[in-house]
Design goal:
Elements: E1 2-5, H1 26-57, H2 61-67, H3 73-76, H4 81-86, H5 96-121, H6 129-157, H7 164-189, H8 191-197, H9 210-231, H10 237-240, H11 248-259, H12 262-274, H13 279-292, H14 296-321, H15 326-355, H16 360-394, H17 400-429, E2 431-434, E3 437-441, H18 446-454, E4 459-463, H19 465-493, E5 502-505
Antiparallel strand pairs: 1-5, 2-3, 2-4
């Protein structure tokens, strides 16, 4: 049987902070950066598709909510994380046994998606949202599995004093991968962007096709996976720590035991509830900007400006998260993120007015929009990176894949359920009326919309659910901040033994 009790760390821990030193780990850091970059590409493409759909069809928030399920595998990966920790070929390596086939499958599915993507985006003058959601769910399922593998491998690949570099590699690698999957294809596909800035004569289309871009990444995944399989050695960490080789059943028992720890239960409540404070702006800001007249190229350009900081930020964060309290930094960022969200929602409201202006007023508006958007993204990145650092600090390398995945999964679940719910709720809170007869509402059914259209009118929004929801979320966030202040300080001060369990095989 398996006996599980609370104990002090099974590996060497320090009560005083240890400064990270990349000497001896530079090659490992590079490998982790590459693997996390590959992980970010499907996530980036999952961000690009809603922007492309909204730009082409002005899709409803209900359809956008449906597609948001495509990223849910990152919030469900805890269900199969113990399998990844328990089943492996020891000769090949605990992590490589899974990494190699998973990344090969990613390459194959990129080819399959590339073959059908144009058909799904233009399915008889409408988008095939069900097919897109299904295939991106599979891509993100594979990427989430790769995340389990790499998170666990990072804890054993790096020296213990350099564990804080794991969150740096995760943050920087994913940020660069998201850039490659989100911003870069939108700009490369944009006809208006290239005709306006780079071409002397206007010609149709961008410089690549979306189909070709998927084929390109299919090749990249297969090539890099082959190189890792051949050249990257994985040490037998089990024998070095005299660790036990757990069966699947015992790994799941261990997982449930970790989940029952008082510290984990309280931290899970925090991670599941905090994202409701920001979900309206996080989920719908870009879609509302497009509805207000901002082009997808301009949105991609705003994100492009933030990419250098987003990639370099983890390197700077690492210099103090190894010696400061990461949860304190996480908590102190919340008020700024709430403030930036309210300001951005206000900017969206006045966007139609400013876009018809000319000269300095229009320039001032765009500069202010870019500034506030990047400040909001900065607050998001700081919260993500400090949280990842805390996960790495309290995770046990012997069960790193499961322990680390438990925390990231809870965080991701709190993120996606709030975003999906926010998109559905915006549709529910939005009310429209017929332009030629305000007494006729067209918010509840397609029949009412058809009646309005037949009478020569159009459905116009008179109550926008986005702004109602933003106010509700902000008030909730302020209340949350004061309720959980002492709780977070208490969790940060806990000794690492209160986050671990002991494994004894009888």
């Amino acid at each position: 049987m398996i006996e599980i009790t609370h104990i002090e760390s099974l590996i060497e821990k320090h009560d005083t902070p240890v400064r990270a030193n990349s000497k001896g780990d530079k090659r490992n850091i590079f490998v982790l950066l590459v693997l996390y970059t590959l992980q970010g590409v499907p996530l980036g493409l999952s961000l690009a598709i809603p922007i492309i759909i909204q730009n082409m069809y002005r899709s409803s928030f209900k359809e956008q909510a449906k597609f948001s399920f495509a990223v849910w595998p990152f919030s469900l990966k805890l269900l199969w994380a113990p399998l990844v920790d328990s089943l492996f070929i020891r000769k090949l390596g605990r992590r490589k046994s899974w990494l190699i086939p998973v990344q090969y499958f990613l390459g194959i599915f990129f080819f399959i998606t590339g073959f059908h993507i144009n058909e799904w985006l233009d399915d008889g003058s409408k988008v095939n949202i069900n097919a897109l959601t299904s295939v991106f769910f599979i891509l993100n399922f594979l990427a989430a599995t790769q995340d389990i593998i790499v998170d666990g491998w990072a804890l054993t690949m790096l020296k213990r004093r350099n564990i804080s570099y794991a969150s740096m590699c995760n943050g920087a690698g994913q940020a660069f991968g998201i850039f490659l999957g989100y911003i870069l294809p939108i700009l490369l596909l944009s006809e208006s962007f290239w005709n306006r800035w780079w071409r002397t004569t206007s010609i149709p289309g961008g410089v690549i096709s979306l189909q070709g871009y998927f084929y390109f990444w299919g090749i990249i995944y297969i090539v890099i996976t082959t190189l890792v399989a051949i050249f990257k050695y994985e040490k037998d960490y089990l024998s070095e720590l005299d660790a036990v080789d757990l069966s699947i059943a015992k790994t799941y028992m261990l997982l449930f035991s970790i989940m029952k720890l008082p510290s984990i239960k309280m931290f899970a409540i925090i991670l599941m509830t905090i994202k409701m404070s920001f979900c309206s702006v996080d989920a719908a800001l870009k879609l509302k900007l497009i509805d207000s007249g901002i082009t997808k190229d301009e949105i991609a350009a705003m994100d492009l400006l933030f990419i250098p900081l987003n990639i370099s930020l983890p390197f700077f964060i690492t210099t103090f998260t190894s010696k400061e309290k990461p949860l304190k930094n996480y908590f102190n960022t919340i008020p700024y993120r709430l403030l930036f969200g309210v300001v951005l929602a206000t900017i969206v409201y006045f966007t139609p007015y400013f876009l018809v202006q000319t000269g300095s007023l229009l320039i001032t508006y765009k500069v202010f929009l870019v500034l506030m958007y990047n400040l909001q993204q900065l607050s998001v990145s700081i919260m993500t990176l400090t949280a990842m650092t805390f996960y790495a600090n309290i995770s046990d390398p012997k069960i790193g894949g499961t322990n680390m995945t438990l925390l990231t999964t809870i965080s991701n679940l709190g993120n996606v359920w709030s975003k999906t719910g926010a998109l559905w709720l915006i549709e529910f809170l939005t009310f429209k009326q017929c332009s030629n007869d305000p007494r006729k509402l067209c918010s509840t059914s397609n029949n009412q919309k058809e009646i309005c259209s037949l009478s020569g009118g159009t459905c116009e929004v008179y109550i926008d659910g986005f702004y109602i929801e933003t106010v509700m979320c902000t008030i909730y966030g302020i209340i949350w901040f004061f309720i959980f202040r002492k709780i977070i300080n208490n969790l940060q001060s806990k000794h690492v033994k209160e986050w671990h369990v002991e494994i004894k095989i009888k």
